[in-house]
Amino acid sequence: MRIALRIIGTWLIGLALVLLVIDGTKTLASNVATFTSLGDVWMQVGAQSLDELRGFLRSRFFATLLDNALDVLLTYPAFAVIGLPGILFALLGRSPRRERFLRAEEI
Fold first, then answer.
1. Which string of DSSP letters, residue by residue, matches 42-104?
2. Domain limits of the chain?
3. Which end of the chain has fewer CB atoms at under 10 Å, N or C?
4. Distances in whole angstroms, Cα of residue 76 to Cα of each of 8, 36, 58, 63, 65
5. Could you say which residues of the chain have pLDDT below 70?
């Protein structure tokens, strides 16, 4: 389980870095800080899946709350929305430390 979390976390961090490089290139070209929102990236990759997700969320119990939460999430920068779960998965997948403190004779 731990290795799966590390692999997923590594892939998400890698994707976030690619998106950050794309945003950095756009920023350098326009001389204005430019961040691509998750909604823009999702529309470029697969607009139909976004419409299907909205339809699915509208059929749930808290439809208005879920729709508003999705709208807010889609306005955030794509590298942040993908990178933060990647960092979380990578941290959850790391191996636990055996000893945290050194004894005086080990220094």
1. HHHHHHHHHHHHHHHHHTSTTHHHHHHHHHHHHHSBHHHHHHHHHHHHHHHTSPPPS--S--G
2. 1-35+78-94, 37-76
3. C
4. 21, 8, 21, 21, 17
5. 99-107
Buried b (16+ CB within 10 A) or exposed e, 48-84: eebeeeeeebeeeeeeeebeeebeeebeebbbebbbe
For residue range 1-11, what is the model confidence (pLDDT) as tens digits?
889 999 999 99
Rg, Å, the chain Cα set? 19
CA separation for the pair 107, 93 (Å, rounded): 29
**pLDDT value at residue 101:** 66
Q: Which residues pair with 37 in a beta bridge?
A: 77
Global confidence as pTM: 0.80
| pLDDT score of 15 | 96
Q: Residue 79 is encoded by which pair of tokens?
A: 């590298």
Q: Using CB atoms within 10 A of its CB, is residue 38 exposed (0-12), middle (13-18) or buried (19+)?
A: buried
